[in-house]
């Protein structure tokens, strides 16, 4: 009979315990959780704050009682593990109810302590109107503050996925919301020009945001909290949500002499085993080589934590048979009416890592244009310039973003390429897609670039360029051209190109653009086959250019 | 300069023409279409009839004029190709406007003539109130009949995807709709117990249907059409939609001495080349070995036609470089409030083909249960009993069916297995999925079956069995048990099993079931590890059993 101790009773911990029991009915399994609850839906917390999830009970999927009844797992809540003695294979536990300590021995120790919100030592940060969102207790605090103080104005510091979910939910509660973010964009997993679409959407919702700015001080002034930004700007708020990121909970293992990875997470091998053979780690706190960069990375996501847990339980019971392959970090968030998703690596990361890549943006629609409800969908993919191997994908849209990022993630996870995207046989009927899904189209367009059928230029390069050296050719209709154009562009619509070739110089670089890239590609094909040697098409067309430069 | 002639101007034909032009600006391309329109949205036709697509223009994506302007392709509508002279590499064309004939020579001939609705020689079938739905003209006829005669009662003969789409649209127009279907179920790509969920849904919509029945005669009686069924039943209708299937349009190539495949489609090799090296075929009319069975099959789907077209154009211009791999026939339909989808092979086909497989059904939810809008989702997958290689998938639900069938199709297309389903790193936030997506869960459950962690039994086997030989164990709560149970079952809820083991006999086969299969699996694990040697869990639980047997 093997004795398993598990530190942390939520995504990684509880799921490991459950699978352990299912495959080993006779094992002794004890799960330690320092908080009051186990198995709660962290991911639902912002929606519970906002009232979208109305019942608090719904957040708590299992209790110590139900865990005992169904899985015969002993759960000790309000018990914090405060030390690991790897030599004697025991842990020290602090019983937070009785304020006593005790030790417990293990055969195998599983550590899934998660990550804690970062709270930098900014003056005033301990103010009672400043909140973080990690667990049920945090949301209880926010909700009772709300009920008591009826805050009208909230500031969200940090505009990652959780920050934006909180912004939406506070807005939903009727608050005026301001976002403060250090980077030049919200949602750092996205690249800038994709985030620009989110910026536009936030504006339509009257959410104020300050980019390239951070908090230097919180200053209480009576009922109000005065927030000083590094730029010198000052803003007022009734409450603040701090969501500037998380830090893996590694103190426990570090003090036990277990190795951390260079990035600060708990280093494990492909069996999720730490540097101590009897101690395993998973979830947010664990670092594993990224499938593309090979660098140790943490995945702060529930899906990977849950899947790691199942694999780990199998390896614990059956021996090391299943290898973990690392996470591609597929993530998604609803941000008001739009959905934002990403998988794999962003362009900026590829650049930083010195990995050769091509990136491309296509705009499509969520279903056939002739059927009601077709909504714009922007897809960016990154891939190997030679093999087409997929490195990453980002999607923004209104409907079906989840499905399309899942298609891309499925290919990426399988180390597939843009050619696999081309061949996906998706389900097509008018309410759901087009005969060629936007993901297929992203694959086709990428293939054309690799094959040299078209060369592309990106909005930022074009924006920085001296236009006068080139011939900028707008192939949209005169009406579209009238409504807004790139400085210096000449308008010849795509359908007239063959007749008006003499207006297009052969001795200049021809930079073509249209609305989204499609007609520009058609025009590029005509010119490239008529001895224009230096022709490029603007990736994502005027739409991306306009979003990114406005 | 190569001269391409293309027969058929819609999905396969028009797309081939478009890609041909993009990669070969100098080619001569002439496209022949016997109808009035090219590039129309066949798939939108039912919705145009129903008024969901309000504007007729929307159905027609390109015109001969726009094709000429943008792609410099010559389009000859109302020109029917009536003969192929492979020796002289020419075709004979009938100009349907002037009623004249002419020949045209080709370097390469591309044939994408599609498939025509089957109209069996049933007495009365030529009645003016009987319609098929293939092209814009057909829908024009239906719409003007509707405007003139204001039909109140419609009969749809044949309940495939198009039949059900038509049923929904006629219902939407206010008609009372009756479906007549020869098989014992609607939607033949599905297996029976999955179709049973569609049957239930149709009932809630007051759509009448007669299964296991066919039409023996149409009999006009004044304003009414009297429909005699083979069972002897007679039903009245104001109009009839005939949607009992399609037949590939092969007359043209057959008469030219080009080989057909055993199934009757136009036989091609992996470059979509027919038995004549200068003639290529694609789309509905073309037959290609199925990726799993290896048998020649037609794919009557727009996605494959469009993708074949692009590949074919590339091979025509660049030589035979891209190989077609066959279609896994992913299909989807909205049927009133539910969505029904399938990919790969159904269980019944695997059975017929003598391919060893396991099938399993799981019921999940479209998103996290604690977030509003989680809707039931039923997934059935078929896989290799040893390797777990995926053979097919079927899904029924309300939301996200399209995304989940696409996940399965992406893996299946890539010849992946249920282990790939387990590892999909899907996008998870509460509005979109759960930390383990239902598709992951389908993979986990399948893995458990292969690994022998659980044995399953199917509803039909249990239904036919003599219950008294076995111990049928219902592990739901007493309340659930009260509301409906399987004859002869004993109720011990899962959480009490460990305490009540002595009530469960060791010398009988134990057949466990719960609501959907999850608690049954947990119970099975407990018993199997406590020396119960013959334990099976009901796949899909009581839910599938009830649907399939009611
Ligand atoms: C507000 C919010 C929204 C999120 N939304 C999403 C989303 O939409 N999608 C997504 O994929 N992910 C989301 N996440 C992330 C996801 O919740 C985590 O990735 C996942 O829960 C990590 O699992 P874990 O087991 O590593 O840590 P956790 O689930 O955080 O569990 C760790 C537990 O360990 C306990 N613990 C720590 N140290 C000790 C100790 N020494 N002794 C005893 N107990 C200890 C902690 O109290 C905690 O309860 C969200 C997270 C938050 C906070
Ligand atoms: C009502 C309906 C709904 C559908 N819904 C869906 C759906 O939701 N999803 C899906 O994937 N598929 C759907 N389909 C199927 C899809 O439309 C076809 O698979 C696809 O159009 C096949 O392309 P094709 O080029 O082979 O044939 P088609 O698109 O049918 O084109 C063939 C054309 O060739 C012409 N032609 C034939 N013979 C000659 C000749 N001798 N000379 C000149 N012209 C000729 C015909 O007039 C026809 O216009 C639907 C089909 C219909 C009819
Ligand atoms: C609640 C919790 C303990 C459940 O863990 P779990 O039992 O492993 O997970 P599930 O309830 O999803 O059940 C999965 C099991 O049921 C099986 N299963 C699922 N659907 C099934 C069906 N229809 N029929 C048969 N078996 C089924 C799966 O195969 C799996 O079993 P396995 O791992 O032995 O193969 C754990 O997920 C948890 O604590 N979650 C909350 C914390 C969290 O994840 N937070 C972050 C997200 S908000
Ligand atoms: C209308 C029709 C002629 C269009 O054919 P098409 O031009 O090949 O197809 P699309 O309009 O989807 O354009 C696809 C091309 O644009 C490119 N593209 C798509 N989005 C792009 C973007 N945002 N930027 C750059 N290029 C883009 C693709 O790469 C592809 O080009 P390629 O094949 O040379 O690689 C053809 O699809 C048709 O007749 N359809 C109606 C019939 C039909 O399909 N019926 C059944 C379904 S209802």
How do you describe this structure in short?
2 copies of one chain form a homodimer. Chain A has 550 residues and is of the alpha/beta class.
Structure characterization notes:
Two copies of one chain form a homodimer. Chain A is of the alpha/beta class and 550 residues long. In chain A, 29% of the residues lie in helices and 27% in strands. The first copy, chain A, is built from 16 helices and 31 strands. In chain A, the strands form eight sheets. The first copy, chain A, has a five-stranded parallel β-sheet. In chain A, helix 15 (518-528) links the parallel strand 30 and strand 31 (535-538). The first copy, chain A, is globular. The first copy, chain A, starts with a strand and ends with a helix. The model of chain A has no long low-confidence stretch (mean pLDDT 97). Chains A and B meet through helix 1, helix 3, helix 8, strand 22 and strand 23 of A and helix 1, helix 3, helix 8, strand 22 and strand 23 of B. The complex binds flavin-adenine dinucleotide (2 copies) and coenzyme A (COA) (2 copies).
